[in-house]
From TrEMBL:
Enzyme Commission number(s): 3.4.-.-
Gene Ontology terms for molecular function: hydrolase activity
Signal peptide: 1-27
Segments forming domain Peptidase M28: 104-309
Keywords from the UniProt entry: Hydrolase, Metal-binding, Protease, Signal, Zinc
Family classification: Belongs to the peptidase M28 family. M28A subfamily.
Protein name: M28 family metallopeptidase
Cross-referenced InterPro entries: M28_fam (IPR045175), M28_SGAP-like (IPR041756), Peptidase_M28 (IPR007484)
Domain of life: Bacteria
Length: 315
């Protein structure tokens, strides 16, 4: 069942009305050499403020934000309220998994060519054993803050921007698969790319770029080259996060990852810093995946890379 309520339209009691995007320049962005608008810096303090809220939600709801639990729905309501207030058209998509009701949150930025949809998404659910701040509050908060940056800039890209927060990823990519399977073939073909962000603030971080679509991979690698940070190809996750259902449907995909339970090598520590011989995230799927389980530099760099890619791929 789909409930479509837009922020402004909700205030007027009208469901899912498209909003007129007022004119005006793209504030807060400077043109690049090609004349296109450049992405603004994403304030890591803003991203961390969302993580603090998600931590509070978990603490108030049995210590987790898992599918089918109160903490998940409270997390979704928090993200949706921010997006409605910023002028997005939001849709809550409902599904059932393991006998419990799950929800995806989809947020469309009005305007742009809806035959060319650029999507950025992350799963919002945690495991039941902890608050899931790195996995995956980090991706969810970065996608949210980037969407809010689009609104702050009143960005008017050529392509249509859509942001998504998935339910029940930890049960096996259930929410994202429900979304892609619910689209008509025509609407699936309108998605020109899907960018996935699942664990992008690991406390002993690596900088991994998905190598699925070459153009998307290059976009991310160009960003990291520009800030002098070496990257590696992400090899742990084929099929292990929400980009997989999109890839299976023929949508070009990409994304970023800072590592989970695998161990950082000495060579990786030499180029990235951190602790060789230790896991990238020793609190993966554990109760210690709290706001203390985040590397701020990794979260900042990946949030800025996310915004860079959204601007570059949608102009
Ligand atoms: N499946 C994710 C964690 C994960 C493990 N490997 C990768 C690679 C790329 C993205 C995510 C992951 C989870 O536990 O949510
Ligand atoms: Ca930043
Ligand atoms: Zn997980
Ligand atoms: Zn995850």
């Amino acid at each position: 069942m789909k409930l479509s309520v837009s922020g402004r339209a909700a205030a007027a009691g009208v469901v899912a009305a498209a909003m007129l995007v007022t004119g005006g320049s793209v504030a807060g962005a400077s043109p690049t050499a090609q004349g296109a608008a450049a992405a603004p810096d994403i304030p890591v303090a803003g991203v961390k403020a969302h993580l603090t809220q998600l931590q509070s939600i978990a603490t108030a709801n049995g210590g987790n934000r898992a599918h089918g639990r109160a903490g998940y729905r409270a997390s979704l309501d928090y993200v949706k309220a921010k997006l409605d207030a910023a002028g997005f058209t939001t849709t809550v998509q409902q599904f059932t998994a393991s006998g419990r009701t799950g929800y995806n949150l989809i947020a469309d930025w009005p305007g742009g060519d809806t035959n060319q949809v650029v999507m950025a998404g992350s799963h919002l659910d945690s495991v039941s054993s902890g608050p899931g701040i790195n996995d995956n509050g980090s991706g969810s908060a970065a996608v949210l803050e980037t969407a809010l940056a689009v609104a702050r800039a009143q960005y008017k890209p050529t392509k249509h921007l859509r942001f998504a927060w998935w339910g029940a990823e930890e049960l096996g990519l259930v929410g994202s698969r429900h979304y892609i399977n619910s689209l008509s073939a025509a609407n699936r073909s309108r998605i020109s790319g899907y960018l996935n962000f699942d664990m992008i603030g690991s406390p002993n971080p690596g900088y991994f770029v998905y190598d699925d679509d070459p153009a998307i991979e290059k976009t991310f690698k160009d960003y990291f080259t520009g800030i002098g940070v070496p990257t590696e190809i992400e090899t742990e996750g084929d099929g292990r996060s929400d980009h997989a259902p999109f890839k299976s449907a023929g949508v070009p995909v990409g994304g970023l990852f800072t590592g989970a339970s695998r161990t950082k090598t000495a060579a990786q520590a030499a180029k990235w810093g951190g602790r060789a011989g230790q896991a990238f995230d020793r609190c993966y799927h554990s109760s210690c995946d709290t706001t203390a389980n985040i590397d701020d530099t990794a979260l900042d760099r990946n949030s800025d890379a996310l915004a860079y890619a959204v601007w570059e791929l949608s102009e």
